[in-house]
Design goal:
This protein is mainly alpha-helical. 57% of the residues lie in helices and 0% in strands. The longest helix is centred in the last third of the chain and has 22 residues.
């Protein structure tokens, strides 16, 4: 990638922006009748952990990989959760609403890249939550950029 092009992490405002996002998002989740049952017992650190994951995916520090187990650990958190398509869609909707509420950039280029990852990631999480899921634990941490073709696992 061209060094003059900022990462999505930097464009969003850095890790602090993702921490604001997940804080606002999980406040919404805990008031949502469809998602609250899934998250009612979450750790108080959960929003910060998800912020670290998102920050890393979008080109920020490798905090999640170095301290919280990386992509394999995120996969493990979704196993046997039996997430529904309705829950996945609501998760996407509330995250987009939280992005607006905390002032993440709303330019089309950023939002299309951001929401593309959210769609991809939530679909993967839902598949990994179903009975009999056999996720690829060895997959590296996904990396997401400005619509570069080839998928999230490219260097």
């Amino acid at each position: 990638m061209d060094a003059t092009v900022p990462t999505l992490h930097d464009w969003a405002g850095g890790t602090a922006a993702f921490e604001r996002l997940t804080s606002a998002f999980y406040d919404k989740v805990l008031r949502d009748p469809l998602l609250e049952p899934v998250f009612r017992s979450m750790s108080p650190d959960h929003p910060r952990h998800v912020a670290a994951f998102l920050a890393e995916v979008f080109g920020g520090p490798k905090t999640y990989s170095e301290t919280l187990g990386g992509h394999a650990a995120m996969i493990e958190h979704h196993l046997n959760r039996h997430l529904t398509e309705a829950q996945r869609r609501r998760w996407v909707e509330l995250l987009g609403d939280a992005a607006d509420a905390v002032g993440l950039p709303d330019d089309p280029e950023f939002r299309s890249a951001f929401m593309a990852y959210v769609e991809w990631g939530t679909r993967l999480a839902r598949l990994n939550s179903l009975d009999g899921a056999t996720p690829a634990h060895e997959e590296p941490m996904p990396t997401w950029g400005w619509g570069v073709p080839g998928g999230p696992y490219l260097p």
